[in-house]
Specification:
There is one protein chain. The protein has 245 residues and is α/β, with parallel strands linked by helices. 53% of the residues lie in helices and 20% in strands. α2 packs across α3. The radius of gyration is 44 Å and the shape is elongated.
Length: 245
C-alpha cells in the first residue's frame, strides 16, 4: 500500500509539473504570436522577401511589436506579407512608415523592421498597406566585392606592365629613367636654355642703352610714371573730399 501511494504521489507530481510547463509554453508562444493582446493587421508588398518566414518577428525601434502572419505570392514579381501588430504601438506607426527586411544579428533569423515615419503624418489604419524598401543583400555585397576585386586585379596588371616598360627603357618615361644618353641630352638642352636666357638678358640690357632704342624704353618708363601720378592724384582727391564732408 505504501509503495502504491508513493507511485501515485510521484505520478501526480509528474503530471502537475508537465501541466505547469505546458501552460508556460502556451503562454510564451501565445504572447510571442500576439494571441493575448489586442492587435491590428497591415500588409506590405515586396519584390523579394529574402528568406522571411511566417512567425518571424516584426520590430519597431528595436522592440518586438508583432509577427509575420502570412506570406503569399501575388504576382510573378511581387510577394504580399501580412503582419499582426500590437494595438498599443499603432500610434507610433504613420502612413508614411516603411518596412524593410533585416537579420537578427549577423547570421540570425530574418525579421521585418518598421521605420515609424514622420510625426506629422496620420496614423496607419487596420488592413492598410505599408510602404516597403529593399535592403542590400549579402549576395549584392559579395557581387560588388567581386567586381571591385576584378578591377583591382586589372589595375595591378596595368601598373605591372607600365613598370616593365619603364625598366626596359620603352617610352618617354622609360628613356628618362633608364636611358643615360637621353638623360645627358636632356641635361645639355637645359644648360643651353639657361645660356640662351642669359644671352637674351644681356641683349635686352644692351638694347636699353642703345641710342636707337633708348627712347622706346624711356617712353615706357614715362608712361608708367604718368599712371602712378594719376593714381596718386585720385587718392589725394578722395582724401580731400572725405575731409571736407
Amino acid at each position: 500500500m505504501k509503495k502504491n501511494s508513493g507511485n501515485k504521489i510521484k505520478l501526480g507530481i509528474f503530471i502537475t509539473t508537465g501541466m505547469f510547463l505546458f501552460i508556460i509554453a502556451i503562454y510564451y508562444i501565445g504572447k510571442r504570436q500576439q494571441l493575448f493582446n489586442e492587435t491590428f493587421r497591415i500588409n506590405g508588398i515586396f519584390k523579394d522577401v529574402r528568406g522571411l518566414q511566417v512567425g518571424n518577428n516584426v520590430r519597431l525601434s528595436g522592440i518586438d511589436v508583432g509577427v509575420v502572419e502570412d506570406i503569399e505570392i501575388s504576382t510573378d514579381s511581387t510577394v504580399e506579407v501580412g503582419l499582426i501588430i500590437d494595438e498599443s504601438t499603432r500610434k507610433f506607426i504613420k502612413k508614411n512608415a516603411k518596412a524593410t527586411i533585416g537579420s537578427d544579428g549577423l547570421m540570425g533569423n530574418k525579421i521585418l523592421i518598421i521605420i515609424p515615419g514622420t510625426s506629422d503624418a496620420k496614423i496607419i489604419q487596420d488592413i492598410d498597406y505599408i510602404l516597403t524598401t529593399m535592403p542590400i543583400s549579402v549576395d549584392d555585397i559579395l557581387t560588388k566585392l567581386q567586381v571591385t576585386g576584378e578591377n583591382a586585379a586589372n589595375i595591378t596588371g596595368n601598373l605591372s606592365a607600365i613598370t616593365d616598360n619603364i625598366r626596359a627603357g620603352r617610352g618617354t618615361i622609360g628613356k628618362l629613367f633608364m636611358d643615360t644618353a637621353f638623360a645627358d641630352n636632356l641635361d645639355k638642352t637645359v644648360v643651353n636654355l639657361k645660356h640662351g636666357s642669359g644671352g637674351f638678358s644681356q641683349n635686352m640690357e644692351a638694347a636699353k642703352h642703345s641710342f636707337l632704342l633708348r627712347g622706346l624704353f624711356k617712353d615706357k618708363k614715362t608712361r608708367k610714371e604718368r599712371r602712378e601720378e594719376r593714381k596718386k592724384a585720385k587718392e589725394e582727391k578722395k582724401k580731400r573730399i572725405a575731409q571736407s564732408n
